[in-house]
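thought: fold this chain, then report.
action: predict
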Amino acid sequence: MKKRIVDLVVLSDVHLGTYGCHAKELLSYLSTIKPKILILNGDIIDIWQFRKSYFPKSHLKVIKKLLNFASKDTKVYYITGNHDEMLRKFSDTSMGNFSIVDKVVLELDGKKAWFFHGDVFDSSVNHAKWIAKLGGIGYDYLILLNRFINWLLVKMGKEPYSLSKKIKASVKKAVKFISDFESTAAELAIENKYDFVVCGHIHEPKIEKITTKKGSVTYLNSGDWIENLTALEYHDECWTMYQHTNDIEVKEEEELFEKDENLEGQLITSLLFDKNIKTVKN
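observation:
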């Protein structure tokens, strides 16, 4: 299969290691592209929920695929998020084409693009982390329940239904949080004279020009690989939103491996010190 050459691809909120992650679908997408730059904009590995003895082979294959990009000609930036904040101890580490950062600013065809995950705007993460973690576990099981419901709906010839999207749309606080998140990101980007601000975190894919009294900026969010299965692509001076179109069904039982006491360290080591990536000093 001939791969599409793309100037830049942004992925976020993959949440490897959770039941909700669509790793097989992501692998399918990654096999079709050849990006010059790949931005992993946070929450790629869900270290918060790593205690669950759940990490299918397809999730490991995603990590291997991402590292393979870096071992070739793709510049990969892994921007840390709240669910993979353990990696922040390695921030500003570079190994060949692979870099771990908390944020990054790139020049795209003469315009400045600011990339960061976005959890800095979330007070529940910064001030009551245990509540946020509990919510993350609940969300994961909600997605699992939703998969079963959608399986039944498909069997009955009906359209799939998103419980979490319905909840977000019906809860005023959730709607306000998303609006405030987007407005805050845009305002900060305008103050710093950026042309694009690219976030993740809230699982809401979007490309929108936001204008205030101080100026304007293009706000972008890459969505997630839990429900939306989306990625941002930049090519020929144009931003587009990719959305995976395969039907989302309940996953068949996958071969799992047991999590031992050192698995967390093994996976982090695998991510950081893959044999195909040459280590260089900062």
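thought: worth noting. Confidence is low (pLDDT under 50) at residues 124-135, 247-265, 272-282.
final: tokens above.
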